[in-house]
Request: fold
Amino acid sequence: MTIQLYNTLTGKKEPLQTLEPGKVRFYACGPTVYNYFHVGNARMFVVFDTVRRYLEYRGYDVTFVQNFTDVDDKIIQRAIETGSDVRSVANHYIQTYFEDADALGIRRATVHPRVTECIPDIIQFIQDLIDSGHAYVRNGDVYFDTSSFPEYGKLSGQSPEDLRAGFRIEVNEEKDDPTDFALWKAAKPGEEFWESPWGPGRPGWHIECSVMSQKYLGKQIDIHGGGRDLVFPHHENEIAQSEAHSGTWFARYWMHNGTLNINGEKMSKSLGNFIMTRDLLAQRPARAVRFFLLSAQYRHPLNYTEEAMDQSEQAMERIDRALRNLSYRRQVLEQAAGGFPQVDDAAEQRALVEEVRQQFISVMDDDFNTADGISALFEGVRRANTYLARDAVSTQGLDIWAALIRELLDVLGLSAPAAENDLTAEVERLITERNEARKRRDFARADEIRQQLQTWGIVLEDTAQGTRWYRR
Reply:
């Protein structure tokens, strides 16, 4: 089965065919580091992290590049507001990005280039465009000449005339055409700048991604990803300058995730419904947040509500409970030393597990449909619980179902972090110790362990099948 992905450039799903067999060159736009990232940004970062994970799960060698825009008007403004310097602001928010991204299970990119690390490359790229007649200089500014690129507008599906009608030239701009865009901005008093052949200044926003993509992935890449709001002008301009520079196509597939709404309304600062990911992570488990962000197919809008977050927490607890029950039943079998019946059912359970795995692959191959992928995961949980309800099971069968659930969780980036796994192991060790204390009628020690677990928010349930636990 071939992976199909929706290509914004062509407006249809297409089979994945990479430049090099078995390898994927993948660029995704990263944050502008002037503040913490909001939940809408988090959706984009989680989506493309999951796409990368799934491509690797399907056997591809993925080189994944995600940039940091650390040169921008907003960073300059934040430095002024805080009485800090631009580099300190950028470095601080790069660090906090990693903290929040790590919490969400977002893996580090193969390369995280910064604009400030690529200034010489950017200057050379711009000079190449000037030399080839695709850009021009005006009083220290450099603009891309969109009339030199006949296909301008092909990503957004707009003609140059339509685009031109939506623009107006600011008083201080000296563009030849309203659709022309800045490649290099002349320095203003007090701003950070770099020396260039056109005078001191700094890069324009769009040129940065083209240069960083080319530097680390080459002139042509397989996939370029970003939010729907980046289709125009950012990605449209990337295509124009990259293809004008190289003389060939830039990215084969363009992927864009849908918007995030808050209680049915578009998230915006003016409406006061702007949620920073860091604030949400202080209130909700990180895995539940990621689960929510993957609960709709990535191209569709996603609506944030407190009820949706409650449901995400409950869903993760259901999955974790199944894994705990599989683990506990296995411990019971091991400790019973033949006291409980086991069956030779490994082949049967492997066949059932493979059905679920193929269901997961089928829906994820169809444009990375995480909503249906989660449904396949829960089908695995349902079948595991059905298996647990049997009187006779095997340690092999229990391991097979637990391995499948963990496998699919890992592809979706929903695996418990190491610290959580360590806690689970400690809880289960204490439960085993408590059961042994009860057998020898040491009820004081058994009560002491129960109370200790209660202080951790762990509730115990003693059932006919053994002791189960969950978080309060």
In short: DSSP finds 15 helices and 15 strands in the chain. The mean pLDDT is 93.
